[in-house]
Every structure is written in C-alpha cells, then in structure tokens.
Amino acid sequence: MRILIYDINYTPELTGVGKYTGEMGAWLASKGHIVRVITAMPYYPEWEIHERYKGKGWFTEEIDGVTVNRCPFYVPTKVTTLKRILHEFSFVISSLPYWASVLIGKRYDIVISISPPFQIGLLPTLYSMIRKVPLWYHIQDLQVDMANELGMIKNKSFVDILFLIEKFILKRSTFVSTISEGMVRKVTDKKVLQTPCFLFPNWVDEQSIKPLPRAASLRSELGLREHDKVVLYSGSLGEKQGLELIIEAAKHYSSRSDIQFLIFGSGGGKTRLESLVNEYQLTNVAFHPLQPYEKLSALLATADIHLVLQKKSASDLVLPSKLTSILAAGGCALVSAVPGTTLYDVIATHQMGILIEPESTQALIAGIDQALDKDVTDYRQNARAYARQYLSKETILQQFEAQLLRLNENPDIQSSPLQSKVI
Asked: Which keywords are on file for this protein (predicted)?
C-alpha cells in the first residue's frame, strides 16, 4: 500500500505521540508498504528543536525505510495557550508545499492523521475528499476537551469554534480510533461519527522493555546507594499531570536521606518544578534528561516506585503513555486516577499498581508509604503479565495493518479493526 501519515511529532522524539507514530511508520515500511510522513522538526518534550535539525528549512530524509518530509515551524521557548495555538498553526501553514505535491502526485491508498493537534486533521480531510482516499483519524489526546476542562481557553466562543472544526473532521473521517475504552466512549458521545469509534491502543515492545535486576539498572551511574529508595517520574513535564505534588511530597520526606526523587524529562512545567526545589532547598530531588530508548529498561529498573500522575479534569481525556513501558518492565506504579475511568478500572481489576486520589499531596504521600512498607511483588508480576498479554507491539500493529488492507480493498468496510484489550 501507499500510505501517507500526517503528524506534528515523529521519530527521533523519545516520548509522547512521536514515539508511537515513528514506530508505526517504521513497522509498516518493514512490511513492504510505501510510507511517507509529513511532519515537523523534532522538538518534544524539550520544546526546543533538536540540535541536528536547527536552522534547517524544508527537507526530506529517510528513517527506517520511511520517507520523512520535515517542515520548519514556530516553537515557543515558553509555552502558553496562545503560543501553542500559533505553534500548531505554523506547522499547518508550513506543510502546505508538501500537501500541494501530494495533491497533484500519485494517489495514496490511505491517509492517516494523528491528533493532537486536532486541527491538523483539516488538510488530510480535504485531501481525502478531493482524491477519494480513506482517512484514518487517530486520537492520542482529546485536545479540545482537555483545553476546555482544564480552563486553558477562557473564551467560550473560541472553544465552540474549535469543537466545530473537530466535528467537521470527525464527521468526514472514514475511521476514527483512539487509545482507551474511556476515550472511545467520549468520542462516541460526540454523536458526529459516521462509523463506530475504534480502539487502537498504544503498545510496548515487551521483548526490548523487560524487567532487569537492580545490578543492571542505572543506580551506580546515578551515584545512588544500595539502600536508597527511588521514586521515579519519567516523561513530559507538562500541565495535565499536576507534577508540583512530587515536589511537595519530596519536601515531606526531606529528613529521610534514603528516599530519593528522580525526575527524567523536560517540558513547559520543568522551570516551575525546579523553582519549587530551590525554594524548599531540597537535596532529595534530582532532574535528568530523558534517556535513549536502549537505556529505558535500565532506567525503569532503577525505581522502587514509578509515578503516573494526572489531574482529575484530564481523566479519560488522555492516557499516560509512560505506563505501557512501566508495566512491561514489571514496575510498581503509583497511579492517580478517578474511579470509573479506564485507567482506574484496569489498574484495580488487574492489581498491577497502587491507586491514589489525583491532585492530593496527602494521597501521594500515603501511596508512597504504602509502596515502601508492603511487598509489591504481585503488582510487579501482574504488570509484566498484562503487558505481555495485551500490549504487544507486534500483535497490535499486525491487527492495524490487517484493517488497513481490508480498508484498501473495500473503503466502505465498517468492521472493528482492533480487538486488543487496552489500559
């Protein structure tokens, strides 16, 4: 098949949406499909264009057999709602030359658009309508709902316009998919889809990400002592997680020299977290950059406790992608989730982590105490078993490819493409 993918994020980004889109593109290319990606310069989660790509204009490279068209665009140094809107819009405008070539070139068999940003689905939608090509619109975050729920956009009229744009895209998509059962319900409740919303979960390569003994972790490299208890957060440092709680919890344990908080990652919220650490004069919190993929298992083996935190208002609007790797590595996850959400239900049902109330410092401290005081072997074993059974990269992408092939043969097909259980 000739497959066109449109996404603002792509390899070599190590976390977030770009990681999954990059793995998807490479996997499809490895199966013999012709894959072209229109994307931006890599910048996430640092919110800074990667060094190797700085100063470049439009150019094309090949990554893992995929033709990747790169566009220059605006990346703000300080992320605000307005600057983020300009950032996303600049990518849409910058990508127009590539879309012009796509429009007059040989027809693609399918176009895949990845959200967020949700509005970049407009160009694939128009291409789909003009060239009569099936459009697969995949939702990693319910961006407009989240911005509305978190109060990131105050102007109700503007929010209404954003929902109208989203409606336009969803209504004209051949397939709409998202990453959790809760998000499937929320998309379905919009009542604008022409076909059912399907489940297309994020995955993990359980052969590469696996439990390692402590001796193979990064503890020695990081200068940790044998008896140190490590509370780890790794990933994007954004607004939706409520990460200030980590620093407040670290303040509570400041007299315990054996409890260390490690934060790996970057993002718009990092400066605020560093300021709190300085204000409280904490010596038990250390910040580190994201680690390369080949060191991920070793990083995850470093922790006694993994933090998976998000705000109440983000429940079932996003699903933390970091959890798949934690489960595959057999980690003990401390998860903030609201009862009745997909995240809460699956952790509780499969007994593979400790659940706490979101946005509560006391709940976080109580959860850490519980994790440190009890034997969490069962949680670790259950987590690894769940990842192997339900989150296998090969299984999920094989199901995805099968549906693409069916869709290519019959664009009106409405059968459910993916049956994997998902977190």
From this structure: Transferase
